[in-house]
Design brief:
single chain, alpha+beta, Helicase, Ruva Protein, domain 3, 2 domains, five-stranded antiparallel sheet, 6 helices, elongated
C-alpha cells in the first residue's frame, strides 16, 4: 500500500485526490481515530471529533472548491489540505512517516493517514444540515466547470471590482477552487494581462477568460493535475498537466505563441507569470515590456 496524495493546492489536484479517496475508502467503517496534532481539528473538540467518527461508514467523497467533503452516516468531515496536506492509504503494519497527524483506522487493518509537514491543513466534523454554515465553505463562489460560470457571470463580478483581474479570480467568493497556477494559465490563454483592472475589462474579455478557465481546469483534471513539486495521485502516479503549462514556472523560457521570454513578477501578492507581448500590459503595470529581456525579434520570431 503506501499510496499517497501530496501537494494539492488547487481544484484539479483536489479533484484528483477526491477521486482517489472515493476508490480507496468508500464503504469502509471507521474503527478508531488517533489525533497527534490537535490544531488540525478546528471543530468540534478533539475528543468529540474522535468519538463521533468511530462506527461511522464512509458513504461518499465530494468536493467544493478546494475542500474535500467526506460523507459519513450522520456527519460530513470537511478537510482543507492547504499547501502541504496529504492523505495516504496504508496497511496498519506500514511504518508511520513523520508529520503524520491524524490516523483513521478501518476494518481489515487498513488506515487513512493525514500527513502535513507545514501543519496548515484543517478538519471540521459537522452534522450534514450544518454544512452550509461553515465559514469559508459557505462563502464560496461558483465552480468553474459547472453551469453558471460564463462570461456574463464574470462580467457582473468584474464591474464591481477595481482590483487586478488576477486578484478577483483568486477570490474564492467569486470563483471556487482557482489558484495561482491555473489563473496564470487561463489569463495567458485569454490574452489578458493579470494587472488589468477588473472593471476595465470588456464583455469579450470576460467571455475569453471564462472559456480559458473552463478549458484549463478541465484539461488539468483529465491529466490528473500538475506535479509542479511533489504531487502524486492516490495510486502514486504524478499528474501530467505540468508538461502542458505555457507560462507558469517557465520564467525566461520562450513563449509558444510569439517566442518572447516569459517574465515573472508579483500581482496580488503572488508570483505571476506573463508573456508581456501576448498579454498587453496596462499603463503603469509592474510586469511590462521593461521586465522582458528578450523581444520577439531577438528570440527569432519574425
Amino acid at each position: 500500500m503506501g499510496w499517497e496524495m501530496t501537494d494539492v493546492p488547487e481544484l484539479p489536484e483536489v479533484e484528483t485526490v477526491r477521486r482517489s479517496l472515493e476508490t480507496l475508502i468508500v464503504d469502509r467503517t471507521i474503527r478508531s481515530v488517533d489525533v497527534h496534532l490537535n490544531r488540525i481539528v478546528r471543530s468540534p473538540t478533539v475528543s468529540e471529533f474522535c468519538a463521533r467518527l468511530v462506527g461511522q461508514t464512509v458513504r461518499g467523497v465530494g468536493r467544493r472548491g478546494k475542500y474535500l467533503l467526506i460523507d459519513l452516516d450522520t456527519d460530513v468531515l470537511v478537510s482543507h489540505l492547504r499547501m502541504e496536506g496529504r492523505y495516504g492509504f496504508y496497511s496498519a503494519y506500514d511504518p508511520v512517516e513523520t508529520h503524520t497527524h491524524i490516523v483513521f483506522q478501518f476494518d481489515g487493518r487498513t488506515e487513512l493517514r493525514y500527513r502535513d509537514v507545514r501543519q496548515f491543513g484543517t478538519m471540521d466534523l459537522l452534522e450534514r444540515p450544518a454544512l452550509h454554515l461553515l465559514p469559508g465553505l459557505r462563502d464560496l463562489g461558483v465552480e468553474p466547470i459547472e453551469a453558471g460560470f460564463d462570461g456574463r457571470y464574470l462580467m457582473t463580478a468584474f464591474r464591481r471590482r477595481r482590483a487586478p483581474v488576477k486578484a478577483v479570480l483568486l477570490d474564492q467568493t467569486v470563483v471556487a477552487g482557482l489558484g495561482n497556477i491555473y489563473v496564470d494559465e487561463a489569463l495567458y490563454r485569454a490574452r489578458v494581462h493579470p494587472e488589468r483592472r477588473a472593471h476595465t475589462l470588456s464583455a469579450k474579455d470576460a467571455a475569453a477568460i471564462a472559456s480559458a478557465v473552463r478549458e484549463v481546469i478541465s484539461q488539468a483534471i483529465e491529466q490528473g493535475g500538475s506535479s509542479v513539486k511533489s504531487y502524486v495521485n492516490g495510486f502514486g502516479k504524478p499528474g501530467g498537466y505540468q508538461f502542458a503549462l505555457q507560462v507558469y514556472g517557465r520564467t525566461g523560457q520562450a513563449c509558444a505563441g510569439c517566442g518572447s521570454s516569459i517574465v515573472k513578477g508579483r500581482v496580488a501578492g503572488r508570483g505571476t507569470h506573463v508573456c508581456v507581448h501576448c498579454q498587453r500590459p496596462p499603463r503603469n503595470a509592474t510586469i511590462s515590456r521593461k521586465s522582458s529581456d528578450v523581444s520577439p525579434r531577438r528570440a527569432g520570431v519574425k
